[in-house]
Amino acid sequence: MKRSRINEIMAEADEMIRSFGFVLPPFAYWTPEEFKANVEKARALIDARCGWDITDYGAGRFDEMGLFLFTLRNGRLADLQRGGGMCYAEKLLISRQDQLSPMHTHVIKAEDIINRGGATMVIELFGSDDEGNFAEDRGGVVLCDGIERPFEPGEKLKFAPGESVTLMPGDWHAFWGEGGDVLIGEVSTVNDDETDNIFREPIGRFAEIEEDEAPMHLLVSDYKGYLG
Q1: Which of 66, 109, 191, 198 is most buried by a 10 A CB count?
Q2: What is the pTM of this model?
Q3: What's the CA gap between 27 and 126, in Å, rounded?
Q4: What does the pLDDT look like over 52-62, one tens digit per residue?
């Protein structure tokens, strides 16, 4: 993806988020220079990879297959492993109309996916085999707003604003917006996007960036290169 396009997406996302009465935290608006100046104070944010995340899954077709994310907070795997402390994470996502977030599952993370506003959120679901692999012939059961909901393999569940689904490790899912763009909330256990996204197809989690202009704000995938 071109950096200029990423900058545009950031501005468009911020406008949409604000339209629903939500404002991102102050560090979201730091320039790269401000982030560098605050590295020591922001070490917890950097280590937890909180911040902007825009991906085309390495395919170069963001409008067709991509996702906007902003990680608001993220816990510590060590706390999760010992069973106490900061074991949770929270994100905002924007799934554009007909923009696919491709089929995947998680090994550790359980998550509530919530339609916070906009159009209809569609989630396609499959179950796992006994080893946790994608199973084309298996369904399962999820919680929709706390109510058990069986699903058939490949069934597409639809969620209006205010509705949600709880996905457990092994629930294979893909999602997109139907009839317009959707602002999505994600509340989950500790999140590790580098290792805990298992895709059905061999695709990348992060975009490859062409630096045609300076970044407006850093992506989480920029932290290592820009901040050390």
Answers
A1: 191
A2: 0.95
A3: 37
A4: 999 999 889 99
Determine the average pLDDT of the residues in 156-178: 98
**Torsion 174-179-180-183 (CA) sign:** negative
Domain 3-227 carries which CATH code?
Answer: 2.60.120.10
Average pLDDT (181-205) is 90
What DSSP string runs through the chain?
A: -BHHHHHHHHHHHHHHHHHTT----GGGG--HHHHHHTTTTTHHHHHHT-EEEEE-TTSS-TTTB-EEEEEEEE--HHHHHHT-S--EEEEEEEE-BT-BEEEEE-SS--EEEEEEEEEEEEEEEEEE-TTS-EETT--EEEEETTEEEEE-TTEEEEE-TT-EEEE-TT-EEEEEEEEEEEEEEEEEE---TTTS-EESSS--SS---B-SS--SS-BGGGHHHHH-
- Beta-carbon contacts of residue 16 (< 8 Å; ≥ 6 apart): 94, 118, 181, 183
**Measuring CA to CA, which residue among 164, 130, 137 is closest to residue 149?**
164
Alpha-carbon separation of residue 182 from 16, 92, 113, 156, 157 (angstroms): 9, 10, 12, 16, 15
Distance, CA of 163 to CA of 145 (rounded, Å): 6
The pair of three-digit structure tokens given for residue 15, joined into one six-digit string: 């406008």
Phi, psi (rounded to 5 degrees) for 138: -120, 135
Structure tokens at 90: 């929270």
